[in-house]
Every structure is written in C-alpha cells, then in structure tokens.
Amino acid sequence: MTTTTQDMAKLSNEERDILHDVGFDDPSARAATSVLADREMRMALSNDPGVEILPLSEALRTYDFVQDLMFGLVSPDENEHIAMVAEHMHDPLGHFVWVKPGAKVRLPVQCFTLLETPQGRQFTHDVTLIDEGAEVEMISGAAVPGSVHKGRHISIGESYMRKGASCSSVSIEHWGAAMDVYSYGYAHLEEGARSRSTAIMMAPLTHHLSRSHTILDADTNAVSQAIVFAPEGTERIIETETRLAGEGARSEDVARMVSVGGRIVNSAMLVGDAAGTNGFLGCDGLKLSDTGEIMAVPSLRARAEGAMLSHEASVGMIDSEKLDYLMATGLDEDTARNLIVTGFLRLDHGAIPAGVRTRVVEMIEQAKSGGM
Amino acid sequence: MLEIRNLTVTIDDVEVLADIDLTLPEGELHVLLGPNGSGKSSLLATILGLPPYRIVAGEILFDGAPIQTLPLEARARLGIGLAYQRPPSLEGVTVSSFAAAIGAWDRLEREAAALDLTAFLDRDMNVGFSGGEIKRWEVLKLVLQDPRLLLFDEPESGVDLEHVIAVGEAIAHAVRSPDRKGRACSGLVITHTGLILNHVKADRAHIMKDGRILHSGDPQALFAHIQTDGYSVPA
C-alpha cells in the first residue's frame, strides 16, 4: 500500500500541525504511519513491504500469533490501570506494527496518538514486533490540540525484538496541562538485538506516571535516554526496571531531568541476572528554581557473579562558574542559561527532530518566564 | 587602552591586590611575571569583573572610561576577553553551539582550522580536552569572541614543550591582528615560568608579588633577572 491523497485527507490541517510538533512528517516520507485520534484508528498505512501496520483489533483477527503477543509481556491484572484497559476494551484500541524478518527499513516508521475531546478518556494498547534480523527507526508521539487541557490517557505498549533485530526510536509527548497520563511500556530483546531509544517528556501536565520494564537476553545492547522536564504544577513519576537476563547483555539508561518548579521522581532499577552482563544507570537533575523537587533513586541488583553494574546520580542548580564562563564571552545570563540547559538535556542529539528541539527550547524559556 | 589606577581588591575582606598601577597602551602585549599566589589571576579576573573579587579602592579605565561598576557580560561586550587557565567543563554544550550563540558560527571552521581544532567542533566545551587542547581552545574562543583586550591566564601551564611554541605564536597572532572592525588590540599574558616569553614577543613585562606590582621593564631583561635573583626588584 502506498500513501494517497485520500489517506492524507484522513487528517485535517490542524491535526497535522499538532502532530508535526511531536515529530510527524508527511506519510509519503515515512515507511509506515499510524495515527490514532480519540477512539478511532484514523490512519494505518505502509509504504514499505517490510512493514505491516494495522489497528490492533484487525491484527488480532488477521494473525493468530498476535493474541499471544498481546499481554505477553505483562499480565492483564498487573495493576488497576492495566486491568481497566484489559477489561474495558473488547475491541482493543491501538496499533500493531510488524517489521518483517530481515527487513532493512530505510525510512522511519511513525506512530501517533491524538486526544481531541476535552475531558476525554483514552485507553490504548500497542504491540510492536521487530522480527529476526530486521532493522528499523521509529518515531512516536502523543499530542492534544490547544483547546484540550483536561483528560486522561492510559497506554500499554509491548515491544518484541527478535534475534538480531535493531531499532532506534524517539518518542515525544505533548499532553494537556491538566491531564493525567499513565504509560506502561514492556520490552523483550532476544539474543543479539540492539535498541537505542530517546524519550522526550517535556510539556506540562498534572500527573504522569511512566513505568517501563525491559528484559535483555544474551548479547543484547540497549541504550536509552529520557529527557524530562517539569514546570510548575507538573509531577512526573518515572519507574524503570531493566533486567540483564542473558550472558553478555549490556545496557545504558540515562535520565536527564530539569525542574522549573515541578516535581520529578525517577526510580531506576538495574538487575544483573546473568554473568558477563554490564549495565549503567545515570540520573542527572538540574533545578532552575527554588520550588519543586527532583528525586533520583538509582538501584542496582546483582544476582549473578560477573554482573558489572554501576550508577551515577547528581542533582543541582546551574553551576555559577559555568554561567560566568559563558557570560565572560559577552552572552547575557538568559542565553548562557539556555545554552547550559539545552546542553545538559543533550538536545543536539541527532535522533531528535530539529522542529522538536526548537519547541523544547521554547518550552523551557516559557517555563522560566512563568508563561507556562 | 587599559589603565589601572591605585587598584586595591579584596576577597572576603582579605586583600589580594594592593595599589596596582598598570598602563597597557593600544597595540602592545605585556606579560605579568610572578610566583604562584602573587595575585596575577586575581588581577585578570578583576579587570573582567569575575566574582568574588571586590574593588575597595582605585579604578579601571578601558578606552578612557571607568568599567569597574559594569557587570561581567557588559565588560566582555566592550571588548575584553579572557582565556582561562582552568575553564569549567560544559557537558552537552558543543563548541559549535557556543559559536552559534556568540554569533561566530560563520567563522568557526576557518578559525578552528588555523589552530588545528577542526576536529573539536562537535565536542563538548572543555570536556576531555588535554592540557594543550584547553589552551588552544581558549585562544580560539577569544578569536571567535573578537575582543580588543585579550587576557591570558597561564597559557603555557599543562602544555608540553613542543606545543608551547604553537600556543605562544597563536597568542601573538591573536593580539597583533586587528579586530574585525580593523582596530588594534592589546594583550596581557600571565606566566610564572616564562616559557612562553620568547614566543609571544612581549613589549613590556611586570613583576608581581604579594598582590603588588614590584617593577616593570624589558621582558627579556626582567626574565633574566628573575632567573638569577628571583621575583625581586632589579638593582
């Protein structure tokens, strides 16, 4: 299937603009695209024979094996939110992405969620299967129109990376300022799989719980970074658990957090279950105001001889020596601070789309000036 | 260009500079010679307005106007720049993003090539730089900033001998070249070893000790005196 004008007409110009802020691009420039709006899968199309993308409900009817993938990494009664999604969705809402065995997908696959109804309640379940030896880049995002500030979103994501698969991903969210969001992500990397992910959690919201659980089999490599921002009135709770389950598994999990009056709690657990594993946790926080809170709790658990685990955590204000060093070149204080903050967040990372970088810098500036 | 009159400076009420008089005419390069802890770095930091130095007496004139009440960034914008001895590491702030922030993006590649720093453009500022790389970067930073008064704090420290020549020549070139508006520049270089003296081709030297300028004169003659008699007033 290739992108057609009809496909594009499934999204209004306004919707495309909203999604553009979180990484959306013209579907013709992507290998595959899915867009979920409120309770409807608005778009699910692929331009690449190596990628199949379907509404999850349709995938369940089309492929027998999908029912084994759904709730394969998490129990339907794991917690009250997951149970609610499981029990209330006879026709599940979400996408199924399947990157076929051996496919080397040239263009990114993009998946987006829109919540367009004020006080909407959105419960989604996505399943991603990157099959043996496949390689893909994924961009995902979630957004609301400017008119929506209240609502609730609960999502479950299950990702399977088969032997030797490789995936690089970026996810960006921009929810409403008074929303509650609960994200549950589960991933299993089979032998030799490689994953590199960046999650950008920047826009203000009332409460966000992001919980993820990753299992790494033998000789896998997972590098993840989270860029987390909390302006006044925002609370973000991030809980991650990475299990180095197979010999030779390696992981690097880094969170960079900035609070301008908001609260961030980052609890990261790294478990070395097998010999010859190597894992690193990094939690760095920067406070830009006297209010708010950053709490970083990295934990290491070695359960096998030869599991090499380490962590670094730091939380502080901007170092005045660094600020003076930049201002000694003639930069004003605001510009010097922005340079330090954007540098701290590693916003020049190649995986982050340029438009998103600009938006993030604007959000930080707005938050500091009290405009958020 | 720079005139310092009767300058006395304290940190937490402890005097670190006393009755400093120093004149640096336009187009000249001077060196400050003195032992560790003599107040050389304090003087440069005070000229630029870095904390925590507090001027309790005297004045600093730049192009005839007093600058001692101006904030740090205002003095920098007037045309004063400092190459740090030990600059802080700025994780995540690349050389390129810094150059863009100070409006020097279009000159970065050319100027970096002249200092053999082309490979540094995507590196974080001062993160993992060797001693010699830090010094060359600090010279490049000043060239990008394009000040008229260039201050160098111990530019040869931590640099291996073969690279002292390159750093010295880069300093001389930066100071002796006009700024981008075609105006002559001046330089003040701190050294306590004198290693760089032959390469910067200074016009005048000042001996500093215990927060005071003891003597001023010909750089080579003063350095020869220091080698035989230490940091003292020549007879």
What's the short version?
The complex is a heterodimer of chains A (372) and B (235). Chain A is α/β, with parallel strands linked by helices and 372 residues long. Helix content of chain A is 18%, strand content 46%.
Fold and architecture overview:
The complex is a heterodimer of chains A (372) and B (235). Chain A has helices at 5-8, 13-20, 56-62, 66-69, 80-88, 320-327, 333-344, 354-368, and strands at 32-37, 40-46, 51-55, 95-99, 109-114, 120-130, 135-143, 150-161, 166-174, 178-189, 194-201, 207-216, 221-231, 235-244, 250-260, 263-272, 278-287, 293-302, 308-316. With 372 residues, chain A is of the alpha/beta class. Chain A folds into two domains: 48-104 and 117-318, no CATH class; 319-372, no CATH class. In chain A, the strands form two sheets. Chain A has a ten-stranded mixed sheet, with helices on one face. Chain A has a nine-stranded mixed sheet with strand order 3-4-6-8-10-12-14-16-18. In chain A, helix 6 (320-327) crosses helix 7 (333-344). The termini of chain A are far apart. Chain B is of the alpha/beta class and 235 residues long. Chain B has a domain at 25-37 and 79-229: P-loop containing nucleotide triphosphate hydrolases (Rossmann fold), CATH 3.40.50.300. Chain B contains eight helices and twelve strands. In chain B, helix 5 (131-145) runs parallel beside helix 6 (161-176). The longest helix of chain B is centred in the C-terminal third of the chain and has 16 residues, at 161-176. The radius of gyration of chain B is 17 Å and the shape is globular. Classes of the chains: A alpha/beta (372), B alpha/beta (235). The interface between A and B is medium-sized, with 23 and 24 residues.
